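Researcher: I'm preparing a figure for a lab meeting and need a structural model of a single chain. I don't have an experimental structure, so a prediction will have to do for now. The sequence is pasted below. Please return the structure as tokens so I can convert it later.
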Amino acid sequence: MAVLAFCGPASAGGQELLDSWIVPLCARYGLDLAVAPPNADRLWGVQHRRDAVVVWDLSDEGAENVYRTLTMHAKTEPNHVLLSRTPLPRNVLGFAQCAPVHGHTAGNDLLGGWLDRLLHSRSTGGPVPPRPAPEIAAHYWHAPQLDDLFLSFRGSHQGEVEAWRTAFMRTTGRSVRMVPPNEYAYRTEIVTQQQLWEGAARLKYEIEAIGRAVVYPTDDYFASFWTATELLILLFLHGRDPRTGARFMREAFFARPPSVSELESFRDGLLRLGVPMMGPGDMDRFVYLTNNASPVTTAPETRVPARGLGKLIALAVRNRYGYYQPEFQTDEFWQLVRVPCPRCAPQRDWSQADWREHMRLPADRDRTDYFGYFPADPADLARGSLTCPNCGNRLHVANHRGTRSVWQPVQSTEADQDRPVLWRLPVWEVLR
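Model: Understood. Here is the structure written out token by token.
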């Protein structure tokens, strides 16, 4: 008989999910149940990685034993299912998951009902169950039906763009994906370099899955790291796979407002606006950044120096994928925060894009970077205000939204085997 392996926290919520949902579902779908013992280590996860279904209750309710048990297989193999009543760590994203986005929580009835539909769909060969609620985090790119177009737009024009989108869909009959506000980061959130590029990696997954995109051009498009990065992603995806010669996506366009039906080809729009192309080495650089930030492909364990035969593996993946490169192993990448200064946000023209500078990881301490961010030690944020080293603007900051966590599994080569495996980092925002 096929096995469902379950690993959950030693909490009332974890026990209730097991008793009220996991046990009955195993009986319903003819699955043997294997439950992880308390304080199981990663060996349990490795031993059960190939079971028919591996369900992880990753709720962060004070006990870290589940995250000590968790393995990278949970993020990269489709038989693993991630459930959580609390938001997942930033760098945990699996093939199938049901968990709340930051700022929300979920109940076991929602998680169990979603798991029931998933098991039913897999037993019948049907599609993955739809996203159960707007506040639930799941792969948009694994939804049963994707929109026809991904829309890249500047959030400062939200109302204008929503009106255009509504009219465009009504006129053309084509559906358009707009990433909801705050889904990947809050508007004025103070973030790490890793978190910036994590958002880029998530956006790339969406755009690549849909395969078609439309850019809504505005004068302040390049004032935002996020929108400028979406255009960078489109340039990357319009490159060709060196193995097959095929493009990574089907097509892209520029909107031509006020028209609600006319689209300009991506090539013509780039030429009209004078957008520079990616230069030599930029494609590889983009791959390195997104690989080291993607919540699917990496975690901070690559900060731990490889030993023994691991050195050969590290050498093999360093040049091809960017893992173990020194700049991605530093505190500056993972923990030092970047503060957005509204006064220093760039006001550059489309033709002034510098993709090499865009993808540089700045180390400057006395000025803002290419997008108007300046570095700060997380401990300094508790003072409630910071001064921009570039323009002298005094910024007030606050932590009103709790923490975000990051999963850092303990490696066998580390001296401190008892260190915490979750970083809990306060969510700081610049007040406006």
